[in-house]
Amino acid sequence: MTIPPTTPAGVLELLPAEQATHDAMLDTIRQGYRRFGFPPIETPAFEHTAVLLTKSGGETERQVYYVQSAGSREQGDYPDLALRFDLTVPLARYVAEHEQSLAFPFRRSQIQRVYRGERPQRGRYREFYQCDIDVIDRDELSLRHDAEVAATVISILSDLAIGKITLRLNNRRLMRTLLGKYGIEGDDAQADALREIDKLERRGREAVERSLVDNGGDAAGVSSLLDLIEQPVVGPSAIRGTLDGLSGANATGGADELAEVIATMQALGVPDDSYVLDLSIARGLDYYTGTVYETYLDDHPELGSICSGGRYDDLAGQYTTTRLPGVGLSIGFTRLFWQLREADLLPSGSPPVTVAVTLLDESDLSYSLGIAASLREAGISTETQMVPDKLGRQLKTAGRRGTAIAVIAGEDERTRRTAALKDLRSGEQIEVPVETLAQEVEKMMRKVGP
Amino acid sequence: MTIPPTTPAGVLELLPAEQATHDAMLDTIRQGYRRFGFPPIETPAFEHTAVLLTKSGGETERQVYYVQSAGSREQGDYPDLALRFDLTVPLARYVAEHEQSLAFPFRRSQIQRVYRGERPQRGRYREFYQCDIDVIDRDELSLRHDAEVAATVISILSDLAIGKITLRLNNRRLMRTLLGKYGIEGDDAQADALREIDKLERRGREAVERSLVDNGGDAAGVSSLLDLIEQPVVGPSAIRGTLDGLSGANATGGADELAEVIATMQALGVPDDSYVLDLSIARGLDYYTGTVYETYLDDHPELGSICSGGRYDDLAGQYTTTRLPGVGLSIGFTRLFWQLREADLLPSGSPPVTVAVTLLDESDLSYSLGIAASLREAGISTETQMVPDKLGRQLKTAGRRGTAIAVIAGEDERTRRTAALKDLRSGEQIEVPVETLAQEVEKMMRKVGP
Questions:
Q1: ipTM value of the model?
Q2: Under a CB-based contact definition with an 8 Å cutoff, are residues B122 and B257 in contact?
Q3: pLDDT tens digits along B126-137
Q4: Does the distance separating the beta carbons of B79 and A73 come in below 8 Å?
Q5: What is the pLDDT of residues A219-260, one digit of tens each?
Q6: Do B295 and B210 meet the contact criterion of CB atoms below 8 Å apart?
């Protein structure tokens, strides 16, 4: 009697070839965050339940996974631990716990898995990677960091080589000003209205317009606001023009903030065509207070926002009396990876292993192991056949594994002190001296690589 | 009222500077595993409880962390999920689940955290990294892979630059043969005896000798066996000599196996002084059937084995009827990191961020951001000061963060199109043209680096 070997529902487990692509993409994000000066931290997968559930709403609480040791369960205790459901609550706890040891502004990246007991469905995961960056300061944080965070993610998403992306910018303070101007006043009504606006694409203009009027908006004002919302503004000078127009009337705060963010993005050298002002981006979460961003693939808007974030007034009010304003964003990586795979858009060129050194005859073993050693010396990922077997079978196995190149060295090659390099992707085969083997492998990798 | 922001007991959470060292070491292991052709896989943090607890004994079951969604808990269900307590059970499930899609011999590395509800104590963690490699084949797996796995870990531990290490080799089949020869027969008695021998260093010779005699061993035989056990054999020719002596009598199997492993290690170019035959290494776990290894720092044996593993006859008998022999090992990384930190042996030279570009005056902003952009272009991890501040304060903040180098560019430098590079570790400061800034940073990093 064997037990069925299956993963739980709602996780993404990959075969080695896909894992290599997955990891190469994650590495690109990691290196990118590092390049922009966001050093990584890691927090435990579980936190105290009291820490995790302090300010979360009903939905989060329903989705949380409790963690309990066998002993604690036997005693009938309420679970003291739960798996993190995002990286923001652990960050808040981290900053509050280590406040005295950190230098502010505190910058960090964090690439870890998070857990949510959602109903499993295609592309929705119960365990998934988030890739976050945040900058946090005490009392006050320059708006320029809002631009820095945007510049970082625009650069990194372009490194990923998954097609042109556009960052959509907005400011919740500006939205509130505009809503107030058109008759929707009070925090709750405005928060409702912003949530409605966030659903514009899904629910259509008519439904949103009706709901805004129901919330107290005057019909003409709401209509002109929606005109504005439906027309993203492209490029820094057009954005500046629009903002000037808006701040002419009662609008304050938000428009000035956005103007400073745009100016800093220009100073940071962010390409003009990589971001737009999009007043429809209001980000449901009430958590954000100023700048908000979402990011879309130009050619695949149907994939939704692959990276979202914004500015918040106070990160960790539930754990410390220090006010900690910050700005950050998060790439929902597992969902992105799954979507790109579904759409056949995954970048290629990251084999799980670069070279397989074959072995045809027992007498070739030490020559073959010597070749492998020299390739590894050059940092090339190399596996070796340890017992002789038919060449065809070895090439087939290497191909199935997704290995890029086979090195074949039998008696003839050994006599000539050469080896044959076979590109398992194109079928091309060349014979090269052992001295230049590593360079030739690298050359061959560049040829078919991305 | 704020909630105390604390991590649960038994986790290792690091500040960014230590995290950078931690991650650089893990990267060395990751790159090393890749170099030797062990591509990474990842499995979910939780598995079905039925999958996880199938063959584990009482202690594992007591230490397991159950995972349960809020909904499932409310319904009073028995938890269907639990956190993995090692990477071997998930590997067995993975290979059995994906058997049809994998190419054999199947090779994989896996670097992930595992979870055990142990009593918290210094250096014992409830969440910790394991770094595993394994090679698995169907029906039969060449002994040469036992050598390959040993060669891989010897190379990687040397890359870590934490001091000279020695791999101690033994073979459980050989031990059983020797025990039988000296009167300790039967699987249970031999398993007991091997567990006793594994405790030799802690419990002393006398206690172990008594227990072996109690298990049926003849006194003279046990004494000569312990003589042998207490004297590790250094270098391949001495090892071969010892093995020849042993196989002269009734000894079979084990000695021949060890001889082949040693010969393959030589062919793989493993330095002769990096491994010894040590008959005291018997590895408590009955799981292993042939080759076993442990690995110690020469200068710090008190740290215990930092990497252990061996050969097993069948990986996944509980999930599949295919026989899957394999060989593998595991580095208990979190414990190793903690021990090296306690002993002040952590390798240096991995700052969380390499360069901090300072900003002295608003008018320098675009020059300063341009410098940062050019450093990032060269792949250098760079953070920028976004609002002008006193230089002393900026340098102090960068120093507290563990940043390696500050770039200072005020009006004078801007006019000369230069920048000052200040090594925050040594205090050295030089002025260089902006064109060569990236190279000069790299030069400075090499100077004080590891």
A1: 0.95
A2: no
A3: 999 999 999 999
A4: yes
A5: 998 998 899 899 999 999 999 999 888 865 555 678 999 999
A6: no
Q: Which amino acid is residue A153, in one-letter code? A: V
The verdict on pTM exceeding 0.90 is: yes
Tell how far CA A419 is from the center of its chain.
42
Give the amino acid at B296. Answer: Y
Output B198 or B127, whichever has higher pLDDT.
Answer: B127
The whole-chain average pLDDT of chain B stands at 93
Choose the closest CB to A15 out of B16, B66, B101. B101
The number of distinct structural domains making up chain A is: 3
The reported pLDDT for the residue numbered A287 is 84
| Residue B402 φ then ψ, to 5° | 90, 15
Measured CA distances, B116 to A128, A400, A449, B61, B112 (Å): 22, 36, 42, 10, 14
> What are the φ/ψ torsions at residue A223 (nearest 5 degrees)?
-65, -40
Which A residues in the span 392-421 are in contact with B, Cβ-Cβ below 8 Å?
397-398, 400-401
- Let me know whether B130 and B81 are in one domain: yes
Q: Does residue B424 lie in a domain region?
A: yes
Check whether residue A140 and residue A46 sit in a common domain: yes
Query: Do B236 and B132 reside in the same domain of the chain?
Result: no
B83 at A interface, C-beta within 8 A: yes
Domain that holds residue B84: 8-163+320-334
The set of residues, in sequence order, having a beta carbon less than 8 Å from that of B211 and lying 6+ positions away, is B192, B193, B196
Asked if residue A146 and residue A169 are part of one domain, the reply reads no
Q: pLDDT at position A450, please? A: 43
Q: Tell me the pLDDT tens digit for each residue of A49-59.
A: 999 987 656 77
CA distance A150 to A384: 45
- Judge if A173 and A260 occupy the same domain: yes
Overall average pLDDT of the A110-131 stretch:
92
Q: Rounded CA gap, A95 and A319, in Å?
A: 9
